[in-house]
From TrEMBL, chain B:
Family statement drawn from the similarity comment of this UniProt entry: Belongs to the binding-protein-dependent transport system permease family.
Organism lineage: Bacteria, Bacillati, Actinomycetota, Actinomycetes, Propionibacteriales
Name of the protein: Carbohydrate ABC transporter permease
Stretches that traverse the bilayer: 12-36, 71-97, 109-131, 143-161, 182-205, 240-260
GO cellular component: plasma membrane
Membrane topology: Multi-pass membrane protein
Claim: Translocase is one of the keywords in the record: no
Length: 282, 275
C-alpha cells in the first residue's frame, strides 16, 4: 500500500521530466535516424547519405582537421592543465585566487574570447605583433599562416583552468604518505613526479582526455567567430561542415547522417570512459 | 603534508603562476582599454595602451548603432527562464531518484544519464524543424524550451540529496504530511547551497550559449547578446572599440558570478563536474 503510493508519487513527480526527455531528446534522436535515410528532395535514400559522407572530400577534410585540432588541443591542454594543477596543489599563498583567476576564460562567452583574440592577433591593428616587435621578434600573420594552430592556442587558453580543476581533484586522491616514503628513499622531485604522481593520475588523465576529445570533436563556435572556417576551409571543423550542409545547402537528410556519425563516435568514447571508470573503481 | 616540487621551488612556482595569470587576465583587461578608445586610435595600426581621452560615449554609440538593449533583454529572459526551470525541476527529479523507491527507477535513471552522451548537434536539426513548423523560430519559447532541465543538474541534486537522513522524511510521513509537502518543506530547504551552485552555473552557461540562439533566431530584435555582438562585429569590423564595449556588457554576468563565487568556484566545479 505504502509502496504503491510511493511509486505513484514518484512517477507523478517525474512526469514533466519524462515529457521533456522524450520530446526533446529521444524523439528527436529517433527522428534523426529516420531523416538520415532520405535525400535532399525527401526521397527515400537508404544508407546512401552515410556512404556519401565517406566519399565527400569536404567532409573528409573537415574530419581530418578536426582530428588534428583535437590532438593538438589534447596534448598541449593536458600538459598545461596538469602543470598548473601540480603547482597549485602545493600550499602557496594566494592559491585560491590563482586557481579561480585561471578559470575566468572558462566562464567567459565564446563570443568575447573569439572577437577579442581576433583583434589581438590582427596583423594591422592587433597588439600582439607590436609587442613581439618591441622585444625584437618578427610579427606573424597568425590567422592566415597558421590558422588551425592559432585556434588550438585560443582553445588551450580558454580551457586550461578547467583541465586544471579536474587534475586538482585527481591529485587530492593521492595519499601524501607515498611522497614521504619516496622522499625517505631519496627520490628527487622529478622522480617522485614520474614514479608516483603520473601513474596514480592515469585514471584522471584518461577521464580528462576523453572529456576533452568529446568536446573538441563538437567544437563549432570558436572557429565560426574567429575565422568563419577560413582561410579557404582551413578551420572548417566537422561541426562547421555539418552546419553548412544543414543551413546553407539545406540538405537536412545528409546533415542528419553526419550528426549520427558524430553521435556514434561520441558514444564509443563515452562507453570507453565508463569501462575505464568501472575498472578504476573495482 | 602536500607534495613540494623542488627545494626552493616557491620562486619558480610564483613566476610560472604570475606569468600564466597575466596571460589569462591581460587580454580581458585589454578589452576595457579597447572599449574606451576613439575611432582614430583603434584604426591607427599603432595600438595604444592608454587612450588620450576615455571615450565613454562609445557605449551610447553602441546602443544607437544596434539594438544592444534588446539583445541584453533577450539574453536575460532566455538565461533567466532556463535557470528558474532548472531550479524547479532538477531538484524535484533528483529527489525522486535519491529517496523514492518505485518500479522502473533504474531504467529511468539510466535513460536520464544517457542523455549526457548526446551531442547537441544530434537533437538540434529535428528540434529546429519542429519549432519551425510550430512558428517558434524567433520566439522566447523557442530559445528556452530545449534547455528546461538537464541530466547534469539532476545528477548534481541527486548526489546532494542522497546523504540527507531518511528519518526526516519518515517523521514527516508519520505526521501525515503529503508527499509534495515533504519535498517542499523538508527536502528543499536543506538544498540551498546546491541550489545556489546550480542556479549560478546554469545562468552563466545559458547567458554564454552560442549555437542554439544562432540557429533559433533570424530577426535582429530576437538575437541574444553573444549572437548580436558577433554579427555587429561582422558589420562594423573596423570599429573594434564598439565591439569591445559590447563585449564588456556581455562580460558583466561573468564578472558578477566571479566575484560571488571566487572562494568556492573551484570546489563548485569539481563537485558538479559541469561539462
Amino acid at each position: 500500500m505504502i509502496r504503491r503510493r510511493q511509486a505513484l508519487t514518484a512517477w507523478l513527480f517525474l512526469t514533466p521530466a519524462v515529457l521533456f526527455f522524450v520530446l526533446l531528446f529521444f524523439l528527436p534522436i529517433g527522428n534523426q535516424l529516420m531523416t538520415g535515410l532520405y535525400d535532399a528532395d525527401g526521397v527515400f535514400a537508404g544508407l546512401s547519405n552515410f556512404s556519401r559522407a565517406f566519399r565527400d572530400p569536404e567532409v573528409l577534410h573537415s574530419f581530418l582537421i578536426t582530428l588534428a585540432y583535437a590532438a593538438g588541443t589534447l596534448v598541449v591542454g593536458t600538459a598545461v592543465g596538469l602543470g598548473l594543477a601540480v603547482i597549485l596543489n602545493q600550499s602557496l599563498r594566494g592559491r585560491t585566487l590563482f586557481r579561480s583567476v585561471l578559470l575566468i576564460p572558462y566562464l567567459t562567452s565564446v563570443s568575447i574570447i573569439g572577437l577579442l583574440w581576433r583583434n589581438i592577433l590582427d596583423p594591422q591593428v592587433g597588439i600582439l605583433n607590436r609587442l613581439l616587435e618591441a622585444v625584437g621578434l618578427p610579427g606573424q600573420t597568425w590567422l592566415s599562416t597558421h590558422p588551425l594552430a592559432t585556434i588550438v592556442g585560443i582553445t588551450v587558453w580558454s580551457g586550461a583552468g578547467y583541465t586544471m580543476v579536474l587534475f586538482l581533484a585527481g591529485l587530492q586522491g593521492i595519499p601524501g604518505l607515498y611522497y614521504e616514503a619516496a622522499r625517505i628513499d631519496g627520490a628527487g622531485p622529478w622522480r617522485r613526479f614520474f614514479a608516483i604522481t603520473l601513474p596514480l593520475l592515469a585514471p584522471t588523465t584518461v577521464f580528462v582526455s576523453i572529456i576533452g576529445l568529446i568536446g573538441t570533436l563538437q567544437q563549432f563556435a570558436l572557429p565560426y567567430i574567429v575565422t568563419g572556417g577560413g582561410p579557404g576551409n582551413a578551420t572548417s571543423l566537422y561541426a562547421h561542415r555539418l552546419f553548412i550542409v544543414a543551413f546553407n545547402d539545406n540538405d537536412f537528410g545528409y546533415a542528419s547522417a553526419l550528426s549520427l556519425l558524430l553521435l556514434i563516435v561520441v558514444l564509443i568514447l563515452s562507453l570507453v570512459q565508463l569501462r575505464i571508470g568501472d575498472r578504476a573503481d573495482a | 603534508m602536500r607534495e613540494r616540487l623542488f627545494p626552493g621551488d616557491r620562486v619558480a612556482a610564483y613566476v610560472v603562476l604570475v606569468v600564466l595569470g597575466l596571460v589569462t587576465v591581460l587580454p580581458l583587461l585589454y578589452m576595457i582599454v579597447l572599449a574606451l578608445q576613439s575611432d582614430g586610435e583603434v584604426q591607427s595600426g599603432d595600438p595604444v595602451l592608454w587612450p588620450d581621452h576615455l571615450q565613454w560615449q562609445n557605449f551610447s554609440r553602441l546602443f544607437e548603432a544596434a539594438p544592444f538593449g534588446r539583445f541584453f533583454v533577450n539574453s536575460f529572459v532566455m538565461a533567466g527562464a532556463i535557470t528558474v526551470s532548472h531550479l524547479i525541476f532538477d531538484p524535484l527529479v533528483g529527489y525522486v531518484f535519491a529517496k523514492l523507491d518505485f518500479p522502473g527507477k533504474r531504467i529511468a535513471f539510466v535513460a536520464v544519464l544517457s542523455t549526457l552522451m548526446v551531442p547537441f548537434f544530434v537533437r538540434m536539426l529535428p528540434i529546429y524543424s519542429i519549432f519551425a513548423s510550430l512558428g517558434w523560430i524567433d520566439s522566447y519559447q523557442g530559445l528556452i524550451v530545449p534547455f528546461l532541465m538537464d541530466a547534469y543538474g539532476i545528477f548534481l541534486m541527486r548526489q546532494f540529496i542522497r546523504p540527507l537522513p531518511d528519518e526526516l522524511i519518515e517523521a514527516a510521513r508519520v505526521d501525515g504530511a503529503g508527499e509534495f509537502r515533504i519535498y517542499l518543506r523538508v527536502i528543499l530547504p536543506q538544498c540551498k547551497p546546491a541550489l545556489a551552485v546550480l542556479g549560478l552555473f546554469t545562468f552563466v552557461f545559458q547567458w554564454n550559449e552560442f549555437l542554439w540562439p544562432l540557429i533559433a533566431t533570424s530577426r535582429t530584435e530576437m538575437r541574444t547578446l553573444p549572437i548580436g555582438l558577433t554579427l555587429f562585429n561582422q558589420e562594423y569590423f573596423t570599429q573594434w572599440n564598439l565591439t569591445a564595449a559590447g563585449a564588456l556588457i556581455l562580460f558583466v554576468p561573468t564578472a558578477i558570478f566571479f566575484v560571488i563565487t571566487q572562494r568556492f568556484l573551484v570546489a563548485g566545479i569539481a563537485l558538479s563536474g559541469l561539462k
